[in-house]
Design brief:
Low-confidence stretches: 811-817
Largest sheet: 5 strands, parallel
Shape: elongated
Mean pLDDT: 84
Distance between the termini: 102 Å
Length: 817
């Protein structure tokens, strides 16, 4: 018995690369590997020391694998070694021939490492189980034969003893209750003859409590003539305290007329040995049944005539029968005719050449599904070393077959992808030696595939300046610090040209996580690199042009801002002229009238016709004129004072403390001319005590710009519009000003663009597109606040302005100058 970790596997292949690959793969799994480069060398090595399993290449020049396998199977010393064929051919005839000459499995190149390991493990385990079953079956058969022989001999001796009255004999007179025990009756239990009085109670007291009731029931039944004899097996306590199985047999030799027994005679036979043998047989049977049922694969054994002697539960379920129904029947009674005929033919061949055999076939389960299976069969011998029957194990390989079919499709698919990929792909072994490359890879570097495969390493194609970092990345890959990496590298082509590539490198690992190689996918980016260099040159030129255009744009913006300022100043002058026109006109009119009155009064004085009533009237009219002139002059002075305050605020952007309501009222006074001959109006909702220590000029310009926008854009197609300006403390340090109108409004999709320079919805209609841009800069840069445009409740536009009551001192930006 060997264990899988220490199993020795012989590799037979004339290709050193294949030997190395399989050697590395199996050694990593803990197997001992014995390589052989030819069939003759393999035969000599196996004869000298049989390995546990052989991986045998089919195509070899000196002696092919089929011949090697035939010779191994013809040698009793090596015929039990499992042989797995390895071949690049997928021909069914080759597989059939391989199984015919004694192979247990067949692996097609190129193979997956996981598949090879799985098949190796499976057949090593099968060999271990088969050898164990053979040894166990042989041992149990020998024990069974010995037991039966012992039982036969014991029965013969028993008959002789009974005939010679060597068993314990008893004689019971039921009427007188007298009883006789022979010497052997006593000595059988370890007593001296006559050591205690003979009697029914002497027997009864020594019967095991668990056996007493059933034993006495038999005795009473015979006494009543209900059963023909007494035949009781019960445990009796010997003198040593041990329990012995005693078979008490007896019969009434005298009976009353009513049939009741008067006298009985019988014998006591010690059957302890038989009982122990039967218990051992039961234990062996239970052990064998447990062992068979523990094997997940169907197992059966039959005699040389094809009648099933037994099977495990898996086999019975596979054919839809119970284990008891299988015993005694043949395959033709349990299986479809064609399947049964195949078994009959293969069984006859096996019985003719009694050596382990394996062959593939198909079975049909109770549901009607067909399964691909491998039958592993061997003969077992009886105690005379003659073939007694066949034992078999059925391995369901449907999944493996399906996996093989899927694998072939997958291999074809990936081979197509590999061969036709536009990316260069290379597969390297653990030494970074390229073992497979696709056509795109060859075209990229200019080499033929046979110049690369197994001849060049990845480092041979890497630019010398990139090799150190490339080796470092590969080392991290091998040490499992990373599973893949992407990097830009430079390669050297066959003609010496430098090729810029992007390389994606990924580790290839075995099932145990061991590093077995890497795959590298490369994309030629030489053209892209050249384009990037050209693009960089254009980018630098473009940056120079952008700088020039930015300077020109900044100058143009400054001119436009100045034009906006001049336009605002024009509005202010127009307002001043309009508001002063009325009081100054009144002063001029009254002064002219007063001059006429004075001239008329002087003429009356000169003519001497002056009357007292004329003097009184002249005095009254002069007083009224002077009063009117004085009031209009005061009104003009007040207006000039307001205009001066607004002009100073807007032109100097000086900081001062001011009442928000009064400042906005003064600013609105200058805008009154724009509302003449219109029904538009402005509503204020500003508490009178709300004061700020800020820049009133920029604030007035902000509101002027918003009002001008409403008049120009919002009310363009309206006869009567309303502007509402509402202010309130937002918190102890800030003021909120809400500006709304009920004009046409702005589409919500344009909200995020209205503060951009030169953005206007009336391009070519007098709008510069700088009004809201200047407004945004004044609010954020000068006044230190924020301005946002919000969707109105009904129609029009709504601006929300948050301003600090006392902003931090900061320079005035160009937008406010």
């Amino acid at each position: 018995m060997f264990n899988g970790a220490a199993a020795e596997i012989m590799l037979v292949d004339d290709t050193p690369a294949n030997l190395r690959l399989l050697d590395n793969l199996l050694c990593q799994q803990g197997y001992r590997v014995r390589p052989a480069s030819s069939g003759s060398l393999a035969l000599r090595s196996a004869a000298a020391k049989p390995p546990d399993l052989i991986l045998l290449d089919v195509r070899m020049p000196e002696m092919d694998g089929h011949t090697v396998c035939e010779r191994l199977k013809s040698d009793p010393h090596t015929q039990s070694i499992p042989v797995i064929f390895i071949s690049a051919s997928n021909d069914t005839a080759d597989k059939v021939k391989g199984f015919a000459v004694g192979g247990v499995d067949y692996v097609t190149k190129p193979f997956e490492p996981a598949e090879v390991l799985a098949r190796v493990n499976t057949h090593l385990e099968l060999k271990r189980l088969r050898e164990g079953l053979e040894r166990l079956a042989e041992a149990r058969a020998i024990d069974l034969v010995k037991t039966h022989r012992a039982l036969d001999a014991s029965e013969k001796r028993l008959r002789l003893v009974i005939e010679a009255t060597s068993d314990g004999v008893w004689d019971w007179n039921v009427r007188t209750e007298e009883m006789f025990f022979s010497d052997r009756w006593y000595t059988m239990l370890g007593y001296e003859p006559g050591e205690f009085p003979a009697g029914y109670s002497a027997w009864r007291d020594r019967v095991h409590p668990d056996d007493l009731e059933s034993a006495e029931a038999v005795v009473r039944a015979h006494l009543a003539n209900l059963v023909p004899e007494i035949n009781v097996e019960a445990r009796l306590r010997a003198k040593s305290g041990l329990w012995k199985w005693i078979n008490s047999r007896g019969k009434a030799i005298e009976r009353e007329a009513d049939g009741s027994a008067l006298r009985l005679v019988g014998t006591n036979t010690d059957v302890t040995a038989r009982k122990e043998s039967e218990a051992a047989l039961r234990e062996n049977s239970i052990f064998l049944n447990t062992l068979l049922n523990a094997i997940p694969a169907p197992v059966f054994y039959k005699d040389t005539n094809g009648h099933y002697l037994g099977c495990n539960q898996a086999f019975a379920e596979s054919i839809g029968q119970t284990r008891s129904d299988v015993v005694g029947k043949t395959a033709s009674e349990l299986m479809p005719a064609q399947e049964a005929e195949t078994h009959r033919v293969m069984d006859l061949e096996l019985l003719g050449q009694p050596r382990p055999a394996a062959y593939e076939g198909q079975t049909t389960d109770p549901a009607g599904s067909i399964h691909d299976v491998v039958f592993h069969k061997a003969v077992f011998l009886n105690s005379d070393n003659c073939v007694a029957g066949i034992i078999g194990v059925i391995l369901d390989i449907s999944e493996r077959k399906e996996a093989e079919r899927a694998l072939r499709i997958s291999e074809a698919f990936y081979r197509s992808v590999f061969e036709n990929s536009l990316f260069g792909i290379g597969i390297a072994d653990p030494d970074m030696r390229l073992i497979q490359v696709n056509p795109a890879f060859c075209r990229m570097v200019g080499y033929e595939s046979d110049e690369i495969i197994n001849r060049m390493r990845l480092s041979d194609l890497t630019h010398p300046d990139d090799r150190e970092i490339d080796v470092a990345d590969m080392r991290r890959l091998i040490n499992r610090e990373q599973e893949d990496f992407v990097a830009e590298r430079r390669c050297i082509g066959k003609s010496g040209e430098v090729i810029d590539v992007i390389a994606f490198v990924r580790a290839i690992r075995s099932d145990t996580g061991a590093y077995v190689g890497s795959s590298t996918t490369v994309l030629d980016i030489t053209t892209r690199k050249q384009a990037e260099a050209e693009l960089e040159r254009h980018r630098e030129k473009l940056q120079e042009l952008v700088a020039e255009r930015t300077a020109e744009l900044r100058h143009a913006m400054q001119q436009l801002v100045q034009a906006e300022k001049l336009a605002a100043l024009g509005h202010l002058v127009a307002g001043v002229a309009h508001e002063l026109n009325t009081p100054l006109g009144n002063v001029r009119m009254m002064s002219t009238a007063l001059v006429e009155e004075v001239r008329a009064f002087g003429h009356s004085v000169d003519s001497g016709a002056l009357r007292r009533s004329q003097v009184s009237s002249f005095q009254t009219r002069c007083s009224e004129a002077v009063d009117l002139i004085e009031r209009n002059a005061i009104r003009a002075a007040d207006l000039i004072g307001h205009f001066k305050e607004v002009a100073v605020d807007q032109t100097s952007a000086r900081r001062r403390r001011f009442a928000l309501r009064e400042t906005i009222d003064e600013m609105l006074t200058t805008l009154q001319p724009q509302f003449k001959r219109t029904a538009h109006r402005i509503e204020l909702d500003i508490p009178s005590g709300l004061e700020m220590d800020s820049y009133p000029g920029p604030l007035e310009q902000v509101l002027c710009n918003l009002i001008n926008n409403s008049l120009t854009h919002g009310f363009a197609r309206m006869d009567a519009g309303t502007i509402r300006i509402r202010a309130e403390p937002a918190d102890p340090g800030n003021v909120r000003i809400d500006y709304t109108d009920d004009g046409t409004g702005i589409p919500e999709a344009l909200y995020n663009r209205i503060f951009e320079p030169f953005f206007t919805t009336r391009l070519g209609s007098g709008g510069s597109g700088l009004g809201l841009y200047i407004t945004y800069n004044l609010v954020t840069a000068v006044l230190g606040g924020t301005i946002t445009v919000c969707p109105p409740q009904e129609r029009g536009i709504r601006f929300s302005i948050i301003l600090p009551r006392s902003p931090a001192a900061q320079p005035i930006s160009g937008a406010s100058k």
